[in-house]
Fold each of these.
Amino acid sequence: HTDGIPGNGAATRFLYDENGLTKLASLGAQSMGDVATLTDFLRFGKEQYPADHRVFVFWDHGGGSAVGVCADERTGNMLRLNDIQTALTNVYGSAPDAPPFEMIGFDACLMASYETAAAIEDYARYMVASEEVEPHTGWSYDGWVGALAKNPAMGGAGLGEAICDSFLAACEEEDVAEQATLSVIDIKKLPAL
């Protein structure tokens, strides 16, 4: 439903920068709930856009550790936690020397669980997710992407705080703040938990 993005069901890669959206490739029909699609996208990002700090956001419906995330409405597939871990391992190896992502986020319901954090433990310093059903507003991308643009060296903790603060502000504007839950989890604290 965004100008410049075709609604023809084909997966398309875009780059968004100061020039707006630039189409990079059309990939044809892909299932967003398939581990191969996620692996391919992670590999593409790693190879084409090297960076000192990386962030990855899963966006779509979530059903927690029992169901997964990123329901593909066409195929009915969803990414299970094992799929996410498999894709990360396929691209970054098992137990990389340092987590490749400053933050992995889930703009999806019910994903802030111990199981989700454990699935990404070797791959992210921080996780941002909601332990409950997110209000229909979802994350406020204008708010946190704007904060990141002002401070590109921002760490995962600061970025997580910007995501949570802008999310709550947007929920207050939409009068759904009483439904808002979102947390920033320091993954290195997981073993103690």
Amino acid sequence: MPSTYSSTLKLELQATGENSSTWGTRANDSVISLLDEAFSLGSISIAGTGDYTLTSNNGSADESRDMIMVLTGALTGNRNVIVPATNRMWIVYNNTSGAFTVTVKTSGGTGIIVPQGSKAILYNDGTNVVNAV
């Protein structure tokens, strides 16, 4: 049975007996490094308009894994930042420019507007993004 990936942080779930003699390297590269990323700050340029979908990769670096997201860039229209539809919490700092809104939401759910210059603690219940506090 091949490895699978966790649904929230997309970490490799090693299958029993798989990757003999290479698991140390795999653990460091695809689990420990990604856990470190999950509890860190990421800066994401969302310049432009329309929907911006955060990357969400199995077993490799991505934008949606960072717990703290600093959104940057010059907005040319209202922007939806699309997060994966998994139970997660994010701290979002809208550090964009331009007189437009940023809404953090899932592709099929509702979201929260994070005003420019503001920070918000947001929770994704698997369908909608809501204020955590």
Amino acid sequence: YPILNCASDFDGNWSNDMKIRLLAKANIKTKYVIGADSSDIVFIDSPSEVLRRFKNKNCKMLFNAEKFYFPSDMPVRKDFQDFIGKNHIFKYMNAGLWIAETEYLKFAVDECLKELNNSKICKYTGSEQIIWHIVFPRLRDIALDYECEIFQNIAKVEKGEISFAPVF
């Protein structure tokens, strides 16, 4: 599986919103792409199994779901995620891990770029998660992995909340 390091040529002051700009410039040549950048997530199986499960999800982009809304001091669209994820422990989008059809990712990233260039949103610079929270309600074909069938967020989980059998 090819690895794309969008930040490998970046030389400057880093902020997480750069992930969107770098993704927009990335030359992705595969039909599907997995984005992973976080220390609080794990894959539950091989990339081929992740892809197989993703194809059964009936969406074009799937995000990891987490237990707590982040960043908590900027609850942009939190009410939307509370509503659609109301029956789930892991109900909030985690932009640190996702899988997508490459063509759809390009469309979604273009929507994110519009928000990054929106002067009203500029006060949120530094967080790509805020930008994804903003575009999530208006983009079709995006879903969250509420049941942790593909991704498992491990941030602040308690005994009994992990939904896969870890091997460690």
Amino acid sequence: WKNTRRPRRLTVEVVVALGLAILLWLYTRSRDRDALDQVPIPVQIQLGSAYLGQYELEVNGTSRVVVSFTGPPSRLRELRRQLQRGQVQVAFTLQVPEERQNDPRYQDVVRVEAANIPVPPGVVAVLPEQGNTIPYTVYRLVERHLPVHLEHVGDAWISQVKLEPPTVMVRGPKDIVERMWTI
């Protein structure tokens, strides 16, 4: 009767030991996380190629977002190397909405999300609630011929100056160029 209990008891001890070993391994792996806090990441914003020459983009304020990262130490070391080489950047290509294409200018913001930040597998990017938007202004560009005018005070010899060419093509933001009468 004792011989049949011993194999069962040994089996239970082995299963309990394996279970404890797995729990210990899971606990140490879950604690094997590190953090990299408050890292400024550059954000590049540009207009789509279809809009080049027709619009001008002005980024208002800083073009960086501050991000914190968590993950395994080995992956964070890889991320640090990428950061030192300037390989971690966020890029946005803007499209001009159809309803805004005739506006002289419009303002909007780019919202940077954690998914936009390229990180190694296993690393999680965490953005703050505030400070993850970048404001920008898009100006509609126009061309216009303007007469050249020389403004002067005094000196009679200035009246003998002839300006060539008498008109020039001016290119710039629509709301500014439309208010110009001479250059």
